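This section describes the prediction task in plain terms. A model, or a person checking by hand, is given the sequence of a single protein chain and must write out its three-dimensional structure as a string of tokens. No templates, partner chains or ligands are provided. The sample shown here is typical of the held-out split.
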Amino acid sequence: MASTSSDTAWRPSELELGRRATRRQQSTKSVLIALVSSVVFVVVVGWAILSSPGWEDVRRSFFDLDIAVKSFPSILAGLWVNIQVLIVAALAVAVLGTTLAVMRSLRGPVFFPLRALATIYTDLFRGIPLLIVLYLVGFGLPALGIFGRVPVVLWGTIAIVLTYSAYIAEVLRAGMEAVHPSQRVAARSMGLTHGQTLRIVVIPQGVRKVVPALMNDFVSMQKDVGLISVLGAVDAVRAAQIAAAEDYNFTPYIVAALLFVAMALPMIRLTDYVSARLAKREQMGGIV
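The expected answer:
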């Protein structure tokens, strides 16, 4: 009798089959509603723009295909400068930001000067707009006359590193403080030093907790590297500005914007994927 029961293939009940059919119908209905509403939205917005009185002027000034093709090579060459600045800045920000986060997390009165220095640094550079930091570093430091001839791209990279290190340090510090104190106690009870506890136990767990925030800051930095053009560096933004001045047309700015979007889009999608994956693991009770 038991053998006969085990041989019988399991089948969902009629009630479960009815629930699955209802869920499929609701899912299909939701997709159709989203599709129709999206098409209606695009049609309405497109009609409003195309039928506006100034659309022809806007089209000639911002969407000239011939000028876009003509300016594309120089803007693409400028974007390579932005990518180089981004790579160097990201590495430097990772090092300096981690150092500042560790300095702010040091315990004991003997480390008060380091904690105070890190606190002043993060407060200062989080409070000053990046554009002003660029002016101060790009025009102020060379005026001292002690650094010799330094490319403006390097000054721009330094300004970006100074600003973003303050943000990254605070994000990392928040992640490190979110690690349960028992983890530190357990590590110290096993004979690890304070430095080993930070390097092996606290920092890896803290970084995992703030990965989405770190990736968002990286996406933001991808855009802000275009600000180095205010120092005279011929990056994508500056190349677009030169091309726009030559033809009295704003289309090169649209080309530069699309290239920046293309550069940032993979990281944006990756950030969404990682955030959703971490949220799912948290809901399942997994280790984050």
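For orientation: The mean pLDDT is 87.
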